[in-house]
Amino acid sequence: MNQLKQRGVWEILYLIWMAVIPLTSSIIVGYIGFHEALQIQNWPISSLTIFWISSIFILGLGFFPTSFFALFCGYIWGFNSILPIFVTYTLASLLGYFVAKIIKGEKILTFLESKNKVNKVLKNVNRNSIHWVFLIRLSPVFPFAITTALLAYLKVNLKSFIVGGALGMLPRSLFAIWAGSQAATWQKLLENPDSISLQNIFTLALFLLSGFGMFYLIRKETLTQLNP
Predict the structure, then answer these.
(1) Which backbone phi and psi does 62 adopt, to 5 degrees?
(2) Residue 70 and residue 173: Cα distance in Å, rounded?
(3) Which of 147, 191, 196, 222 is the most buried (most CB within 10 A)?
(4) In sequence order, what are the residues at sequence separation of 6 or more whose Cβ sits closer than 8 angstroms to the Cβ of residue 50?
(5) Any residues with CB less than 8 A from the CB of 132 and at least 6 apart, and which?
(6) pLDDT-derived band of residue 223, with 50, 70 and 90 as boundaries?
(7) Top-ranked range on mean pLDDT: pick from 8-17, 88-97, 119-128, 210-219
């Protein structure tokens, strides 16, 4: 019994970590980006390799928010960062997924399944997992690391996780890269991140699309499965 309680505490602490740490790291990286942008742009291949490999672990373990990361890379390298960001996100997702698998999340899952309405939604997620993963990744509301852990706790199959996640992250990442590349200065972007009105419209559109998609999945229980 004590072991189960202890496991439950670690599961909750892991999710809290995923929520708190990215906020702190954003402030630090924002400061570095403001003062070191030119130096970063001229990094040699060896430094870039270390940066991208490190980013897999930083994002996968919840040290940094993915949208801010894409914004930062867009400001530094523009659209040249698209491919490395896509690869980094995919590998970071897998890392977070397998770490969460080790933690298991049994106590959290048991608690959620005890709530009848929530349990129905969880079953819906498992039946239509590729749809849910796509919509969760598409929405700017859901934190990358936390949702990765929860999807692993729910035992979403790996193919659905990879395919749905890659498709869902692509549009929001592309837009974040574009928004970063359009910033005249990093300082201006940090002081007024909503200065680009199109960004607000696009973010709202993704939020609404994701929300309506989830509502549709919940309402249409007999939706044909498309899980790979």
Answers:
(1) 80, 25
(2) 6
(3) 147
(4) none
(5) 124, 125, 151, 156, 164, 214, 217
(6) very low
(7) 88-97
| Max Cα–Cα distance, the chain, nearest Å | 57
Q: How far is CA 35 from CA 104, 204, 215, in A?
A: 41, 31, 44
Q: Cα–Cα distance between 128 and 118 in angstroms, integer?
A: 15
* 3-state SS record for 123-185: HHHHHCHHHHHHHHHHCCCCCHHHHHHHHHHCCCCHHHHHHHHHHHHHHHHHHHHHHHHHCCC
User: What would the mean pLDDT of 2-18 be, rounded to a whole number?
Assistant: 57
Single-letter residue type at 113: E
Q: Which two tokens stand for residue 53?
A: 């490999």
Which residue's structure tokens are 């890392």? 95
| pLDDT confidence of residue 186 | 54
Q: Please give the Cα distance from 213 to 133 (Å, whole number).
A: 11
Distance, in Å, from the CA atom of 18 to the CA atom of 175, rounded to the nearest integer, reads 23
> What's the average model confidence in pLDDT over 46-59?
88
Mean pLDDT on 156-169: 91
**Which residues fall within 8 angstroms of residue 163, CB to CB, at 6 or more apart?**
130, 133, 228
